[in-house]
Structures are given as structure tokens and as C-alpha cells.
Write a structure and sequence with these properties.
44% of the residues lie in helices and 15% in strands. The chain is built from 15 helices and 14 strands. Helix 4 links the parallel strand 4 and strand 5.
């Protein structure tokens, strides 16, 4: 939900704004500028709509005060047709955009959306520059992996579902955990569940839990949805779900409630859903193997992780990262050994690279890995 602080002494405009904006906008009102500054510090709105003419303080002076706040939100100036010179000054002073009164709904929504998108991008760039520790697990400097990092930062603050795609071994689980660790849910649990590794007969119990007596030997136990309360549920290999399981999952995602197997109580769920697959789900939808409505539900946002063969410039960094992880020190590797790693096609991607290096470290007794230590299977 986008929280808007509307600073304007026109009560009719205040009422109109609350009436015309959709439900996913929350409007906080202030008729005086100084009260607006107090509300910014108290309510932390996403955007400020600021009338350039106020009864207690000049709009440009108020803009200056807002920009001086530690966490200053973007400001959209509201002005009459005769005040363009003031608008120019406001933009130079740091206003994000302006609207001329009376504004139209579509124009208002478009301007708010554009300013919000710019705010999210700037936030992502700041995070990328500071390189949060959780992001350090996404190793590489290639353009492809930098794009993945940007999307991780962009999506971390959202509550929307994210579909992570990529070949086996590309690190989809690492991306999912990183999104969780950078989100406001990081204090809650991260619960991974591999849908492809659970038999169909047990999947419903694993996800939704069971009530004592639901079946022979059944005990009361929570499922993954309950265990992830307040955090993130990561459903890996979601493309392996059967049609029946897909229907049940869709119902839970739509209702945001579950009922344990054999139970009658409706349990609300407060979680974020991340999913991953190595399949082309759009193709699976066309073949009738995956529900289109479920696909749209889980793919509000998406990240595609490139295979290692398409980002070979990252192999040296990944090698150094894994060797330090495996040995606790910066183990040397010869040029010929590194060239052998770079020339290989890596069908198993990053997982295979880690396994190859782990074998090399175990078998080699030298201080430097050479070409003979690198063995592919």
C-alpha cells in the first residue's frame, strides 16, 4: 500500500483525493505545513503531495525543511497555472515532480507511480553500493549477475510473490534466502520446501499440517505454512507439483488461510511466498501441466538466473569464494587450472563448480591447485 501525505489547506481537495484514489492508496491529511512536517516524522509516508501555497508557511520553504529530514520522502508539488516559475524553483530544490490543479485521476496515479518507481530504484542503488552482507553470497561482477543483484534489492522490500527461474545448480535457493534476509521479514523464519522431493500423498500434510486422527498414526503438527508465520516460505521446484496440489496451493494463496488435514479450524497465514523452478512454466501452462491462474499468482515478480556458461567472467571470483569457504584461507590455484575451469561448459552450474573444487581440495596436498587436481565427471 502506498502511503500519501497530502499537505493542502483546501478541504474539498482533501476529500476529493480520498474519494478518487484506489484502495491500495492510504491518504494522510494536513492543512498546515508545519503539522505536515510532524506527520512525516511520525507516519513515514511514501510520498508527499505539497501545495505550493499554504496558510502558515511558504511551500518552497516547507520543501526545504522536508528535504533536510533524515528520511525525507519524495515530494510532488501542487500548483496553479500561474505559478510555473515557483515550480521550476521547486524542481531545482529537489521536488520529484509537479501537478497542476485541478489534476485528473489518471495523471495523478501516473505521477505517483513514476515517483514511486524512481524511489525504489534509488533505494536499490544505495543498497547495491553498500553491499549488504546477505548480498555477498551472490558472487560475481558480470553484467548478468549484477542485474540479478539489482532485482533482489528491488524486490526485497516488496510483499509480492517472486518466481525464481534458472537451470539446476544456478543458486535459486541462495537468491531466495537473500531476498528474505534483505526484507523486513528477515527476523521471521525462512522455510524452504522442495516440492519435487515430497511424494504427492504427503505434500498436503507437509504444507498445511495435520490434525490428530486425520489418518492412521497422524499427530497434530503444523505444516510449512504455519512454520513460516511472520517470515518467508520458499517452494522450490514448484513445477513438479501435481494438478491436484496446484489447486490446493492456489486456494491457499487466494484466501490467505489454511486448514490442517483432518482439521476444521481456519488458520490465517502471514507469510511471503517465494517459488523456484528449472522448468519453463509458460510452456508447461500451454501443455496443460501447470495452472495458468497459479502461474500468474506466483509470478508477480520474477528473477531469471543465468547459467554459469553465460557468465564465465565470474568463475575466478566464484572459485576464490568457494576455496576460502572450503579451506578457511586463500588457497592458490594455478593459471592452467583456472583456464581449465573457465573452458569447461558447466552443465551442473555453480553446484558442480563447488563439487569439483571440494574434490580438488580433499585430494590435493599441495599449497596450490594445479590442472591435474581439476577433475570433471
Amino acid at each position: 500500500m502506498v502511503r500519501i501525505l497530502f499537505i493542502d489547506d483546501d478541504h474539498q481537495d482533501q476529500k476529493l483525493l480520498k474519494m478518487i484514489l484506489p484502495e491500495n492508496y492510504a491518504v494522510i491529511s494536513a492543512v498546515k505545513g508545519l503539522h505536515g512536517v510532524e506527520l512525516i516524522q511520525k507516519e513515514e509516508p511514501d510520498i508527499v503531495l505539497l501545495d505550493i501555497e499554504l496558510p502558515d508557511i511558504n511551500g518552497l520553504e516547507l520543501l526545504k525543511r522536508i528535504n533536510a529530514l533524515p528520511l525525507s520522502p519524495p515530494v510532488i508539488m501542487l500548483t496553479g497555472c500561474s505559478e510555473i516559475d515557483k515550480v521550476v524553483r521547486a524542481i531545482k530544490m529537489g521536488a520529484s515532480d509537479y501537478l497542476t490543479k485541478p489534476f485528473k485521476l489518471e495523471q495523478l496515479k501516473r505521477t505517483i507511480r513514476d515517483v514511486m518507481e524512481e524511489k525504489i530504484k534509488e533505494s536499490a542503488l544505495i543498497k547495491l553500493k553498500t553491499e549488504d552482507p546477505p548480498l555477498n553470497e551472490i558472487v560475481g561482477e558480470s553484467t548478468a549477475i549484477k542485474d540479478v543483484k539489482k532485482l533482489i534489492l528491488l524486490y526485497a522490500d516488496s510483499e509480492s510473490s517472486v518466481l525464481i527461474t534458472g537451470e539446476s545448480g544456478t543458486g535459486k535457493d541462495v537468491v531466495a534466502r537473500t531476498i528474505h534476509n534483505l526484507s523486513f521479514r528477515k527476523g521471521g523464519p525462512f522455510v524452504p520446501k522442495n516440492c519435487g522431493a515430497i511424494p504427492e500423498a504427503l505434500l498436503e500434510t507437509e504444507l498445511f499440517g495435520s490434525q490428530k486422527g486425520a489418518f492412521t498414526g497422524a499427530i497434530s503438527r503444523p505444516g510449512s505454512f504455519e512454520m513460516a508465520k511472520g517470515g518467508t516460505l520458499f517452494l522450490d521446484e514448484i513445477g513438479e507439483m501435481t494438478p491436484l496440489s496446484q489447486v490446493k496451493l492456489l486456494r491457499v494463496l487466494e484466501d490467505k488461510t489454511i486448514t490442517r488435514v483432518g482439521g476444521t479450524s481456519v488458520i490465517p497465514v502471514d507469510i511471503r511466498i517465494l517459488t523456484a523452478t528449472n522448468k519453463d512454466l509458460k510452456y508447461e501452462c500451454r501443455r496443460g501441466n501447470f495452472r495458468l491462474d497459479l502461474f500468474y499468482r506466483i509470478s508477480t515478480l520474477s528473477i531469471k538466473i543465468p547459467p554459469l556458461r553465460e557468465r564465465k567472467e565470474d568463475i575466478s571470483l566464484l572459485t576464490a569464494y568457494f576455496l576460502k569457504m572450503l579451506t578457511g584461507r586463500n588457497l592458490d590455484i594455478s593459471i592452467s587450472a583456472m583456464e581449465k575451469l573457465i573452458d569447461y561448459n558447466w552443465p551442473g552450474n555453480i553446484r558442480e563448480l563447488k563439487n569439483v573444487l571440494e574434490r580438488a581440495v580433499l585430494h590435493s596436498k599441495k599449497h596450490t591447485l594445479d590442472e591435474g587436481d581439476i577433475v570433471f565427471y
